[in-house]
Structure formats: C-alpha cells, structure tokens
Amino acid sequence: MITAGIEALGVAVPGTYLDLSDLAQARGVPVAKFHEGLGVREMSVALASEDTVTLAARAARMALKDVDPHEIGLCIVGTETAVDHSKPVASFVQGLLGLPQHCRIYETKHACYGGTAGVMTALDWIRAGSHKGRKALVICADIARYPLGSPGEPTQGAGAVALLLSESPSLIALGPAVGTCSRDVNDFWRPLYKKSAIVDGQYSLSCYLEALQGAYLAWQVESGGLKPFRSDAFAAMVYHVPFPKMAKKAHWALRDFDGDRDPEVSYRWQVEHGLNFPQRVGNLYTASLYLSLASVLATDLRPLDGAQVGLFSYGSGSCAEFFTGIVTRGAQAKVKALQLDKMLDARRRISFAEYERTLAQAEGADAAPAKREAAGHPYTFLGVEADRRVYARP
Ligand code: CAA
Q: Is 35 among the catalytic positions?
C-alpha cells in the first residue's frame, strides 16, 4: 500500500485576541472557571476584515511555501462556518492562491469533523493511486461563535490549519486503520438563519465521550487487535479540543476504558503539550485537532522521531474517528521552524469593549459594501460588490 500522510502544515490565526481574564471580569465570572475549569486563557477574535476564506488562504500559503501550487491535484476545505451556501471556500482559496485549473476543488461539512472528512478522502485518493503523483491540500478553517454571555462564549476562537498530504509524509505518516463512530444527535448545531451555534452544553460533552469510546473500540478492531491494547503505547494522544479541559476529560475516559486508575500521569506526557496552542487560541472547530497536533510537534521537547501518536476527531451531530500516525524523522524541527509561538506572541490583545464592537461589526460584514482599504494582513475581506465577495491579496 502507498504510504500517505502529512508532508507540511500551515497555521493562521487572527492578529487579535481577548484575554479570558478580561471576559471573566466583564461577565462577573471567577477567572478560575475559565483558566482551570475550562483550561482556556486567550481566545482569537477575527476582525470584520477576516473570514474563513482569508484564514484558510493564510494557512495554506504557509503549508505551500516550498511547493509549486501546480503539484496540487485536490483541494478540500473543511468548515462549518462557510461564507456562501453554494460557492465553496475552496474556490475562493483557489483564486487567492493560484491553484491550477485541473485541481479538484470542494468544501466538506460535518461540524468539527469536516476537516478530518477531507483528510480521509485525500488519504484514500493517494492510497488508491488516483493522485498520479500529485498532492492534496486539506484546509480546516473556522470562526467559532456562541451567543454573547452564554456558557459557550469563553469557548469561541478563530483560525485555520492547512495540511499538505502526499506520499512523502515528511511530518506524519498516517496509518490505514480508522475507527469510526457516528450517531444522529442534537448536541450542537447552527440553523441556516443563525450566525452563532446552539449547543446543549453538558449533553455535548457526553456525546463526545461516548463517540470517543465507540471510535477507539472500532479502531482496535480495525487495526486487527483482539489482543488487549493500552493507549499509553502512544507517545502522544491528540484530541479534538473545543476547550482544553475537554481533552483532559477525554483522556480520563480513554485511560479509564483501558483500566488505568491514575490517568493524571499519562495526561502530563501524552496530552499536555498538545494543549499549549489551543489554550491561547480557543476552539477552531475543524482545525482544533490539527492545531493540537502542531502544538505537540512544536512544543514537546522529547524526541518523537518514529513515535506513534493517537488522534481523535469529533464533530457534533455526530461523526467521530480514531486514527494514528508515525512521526517522521525531523518533523519537530520543521514545525518549530514555523515559529508558531512567535506568531501567537505577536498578536494584539483587545479590550472587552473592542471585542464587543468587533463581533457587532462582523455581524453585518457579509452584506457590507466593499471598502478599498489598505490590507492589514496578507488576505483581506473587503466586503460585497454586486453580491460578490471581494478580497485583497498580497
Ligand atoms: N473555579 C474553578 N473551576 C470552576 C469554577 C471556579 N470558580 N467554577 C466552575 N468551575 C469548573 C466546573 O467545575 C467545571 O469543571 P468540570 O467539568 O471539570 O466539573 C468547569 O469549570 C465548567 O463549569 P460548568 O460545567 O458549570 O460550565 P458551564 O455549564 O457554564 O459551561 C460548557 C461549560 C458546557 C462546556 C460550555 O462552555 C459550552 O457549552 N461550550 C460549548 C460546547 C462544547 O464545547 N462542547 C464540547 C463537546 S462538543 C464538541 O466538541 C464540538 C465542538 O467543538 C463544539
């Protein structure tokens, strides 16, 4: 079978963030609830000039920095915060990045699982030989939004992770065994007429944990093991991170399932490195799992060459998958060289008042007339002209 996996990755976050201590103060909530209770410290806030397209394009530009766009034969954007009911985010990205005409381009949606759906399709495309030597670009991009003042508000965020998938996986070779678990549930959704998500908070947590158990069991069967398997065989466990405490709850559930009565020990070395970036950015929906993977590769100081990692993707509604990867020699140095920590450090902290103003502006941005202003970031959403979205590019 053809080896397939992640050759390169790119990350984009808005240049602005809200410190959760400012949100806690404004909402009259003890800050410990956000810091310790949810495990989140900062959340990315997208300005009205940024949308899912600009974040996706920026992440893809980073992932493609050493690649000729003409090598891309498949481009999928996984998102649950698309900008049009018909035209896919992937087509806008094609225009902004100059992807070739012979490239297959589309968007996938299944809540936070939508990006993984694209990854699985791209892996099958490569393994089946349909790629004919070309590479796939899968971009996970979202702006997570809940009603102001709701329990979900501190778990917002915005950003994108782009993955270049190929038969030369110089970051992670992904294993062929995948455990799937899907169910029709109403844990989290966003009706067509709403900008922010509706969530049955505590129920969504139990749906996530049940799906984890189902997908993990299915993966064990798929990977041919009737012999007992313990998840501490993985050097790192990377979970979908709607908020960091959820990954902790997931790890507890997984290790409990394995019969481990003291999961705190493995949590420290298997999970914590993967939460360094998510706790500074918030929920990126489709991209959260892959930001956590980038966080492991960028911040875990142990040499991980040849190590196996476990990955768990969850999308409400629901579909979940458990799969694995082997870290390629030199992958950590490549991801460290992206200086993602410096990118986070360089963001501007906004006040609570600016956060409220920004969200109010974003509310009407999809229909606002295009303004030809100087762009503050590489790709800028300028507004709408004759019902067409207008973007500035570098
Ligand atoms: N000091 C320290 N900790 C405190 C505290 C304080 N003063 N006050 C509360 N806490 C702790 C609580 O004990 C709790 O921790 P545990 O769960 O470990 O017991 C934690 O803070 C949160 O408190 P609550 O459960 O009371 O919080 P809440 O009900 O107000 O909201 C939430 C929590 C339901 C997760 C809410 O933020 C939410 O709805 N978020 C969006 C939904 C979500 O992310 N679901 C995840 C699964 S679905 C999914 O993964 C898809 C997706 O991306 C959305």
A: no
363 lines ligand 1 (CB under 6 A): no
User: Ligand 1: distance of its center to the CA of 209 in Å?
Assistant: 14
**DSSP, res 149:** T
Considering the candidates 110, 240, 251, 273, report the single residue annotated as catalytic.
240
Report the number of distinct structural domains present in the chain. 1
Cα–Cα dist 126/166, whole Å = 7
> What's the rounded Cα separation, in Å, for the pair 163 and 130?
19
Summarised one tens digit per residue, pLDDT across range 183-218 is: 999 999 999 999 899 999 999 999 999 999 999 999
Nearest C-alpha to atom 8 of ligand 1 is from which residue?
A: 33
Burial-class residue 200 by CB neighbours within 10 Å (0-12, 13-18, 19+): middle
Give mean pLDDT, residues 321-331.
97
CA–centroid distance, 40 to ligand 1, in Å, is 11
Tens-place pLDDT, residues 91-138: 999 999 999 999 999 999 999 999 999 999 999 999 999 999 999 999
User: Would you call 112 a catalytic residue per the annotation?
Assistant: yes
List, as one string, the DSSP characters of 245-266: HHHHHHHHHHHHHTT-S-HHHH
Task: Confirm or reject: Cβ of 199 under 6 Å from ligand 1.
Answer: yes
- pTM equals 0.97
Give the CATH number for residue 197.
3.40.47.10
What's residue 376's pLDDT? 63
Residue nearest to atom 24 of ligand 1 (CA): 37
Range of the domain at 105: 5-392
